[in-house]
Amino acid sequence: MTIFNDLSLLQAFVAIVESGSLSAAARKLNLSQPTLSRQLRSLEDQCGTALLRRDTHRMSLTDMGHQFLADAQALLALAEESEQRMRRDQSALSGNIRVFSTIDFGQSVVSRMISSFIQAHPAVRMELAYSNRPLHMIEEGCDAGIVAGALTDDRVVARALGEIRRYPVASPAFLKDHKFVSKPENLRALPWIALSSRQFGGSRDVTLYSEAATHTLQIEPVMISEGVTSMREAARMGLGLAVLPEWLVEEDLMSGRLVRVLPKWQAKPLAAQIVYPVQRRLPLRVQAFIEFATEYMTTVLKPR
After folding, report:
1. Signal sequence span per UniProt (predicted)?
2. Is residue 2 part of a domain?
3. What is the pTM of this model?
4. For the chain, what is the domain count?
């Protein structure tokens, strides 16, 4: 233990010097005079030397007291500045927020969402990283992440943002060459483009749902990708069928570049979530971002 471990002793010493007497310092600190005297003695005992000369009429600093006063004032000023900075950090929408997302969702929907948040709060700065390993990114110090698929872990809070609709789609040219596509079982033997990660809906088994039935296909993909954007490009080229999220292909469906295969059928939707550390105290700016993301996603995703 050192003399600098207890800031209250430093505050007592500085108050005595600046007030000019023990009684005045005691009133300033709202302490009894005997308590303040004990604190001064404790500080001098730890220093191993007298810091103040005291007699019945006046009080003055020793040579060591002069040196110690400057150090104590500097340390107390630094502590106060740090405390004020942390209070501002907790109470103001300013500072830096580190967010991560999967690359496809991050480069489109999440990027637009972050832009809207910064425009609403110009003093905030944000970093966007990409990763398919959400827990790794939380451990690396990210404040929050936008993830798709199921995620259960005691180290993070997962807050639902809605569901990502997913449809089997293909290009008009592909469907023209495969006119017999009229029911789910017809799709099994066709060329497929698949997603590699099971967490984000990738699988060699494709399950499709209608209002009245469920059908599971075992497929042999001609192309497997880690990202849905590359799958969309391959589907546009007429390479095969692909199950793709609505947020990615909405414009393609409207323009006719892609077409829903069996429009009454869709793939199982994926949960979208915002995750953040369970044990970390969140600054106000991060709390505000989480609330903003939850509201923003209602305009993009289907509520759960």
Report:
1. none
2. no
3. 0.64
4. 3
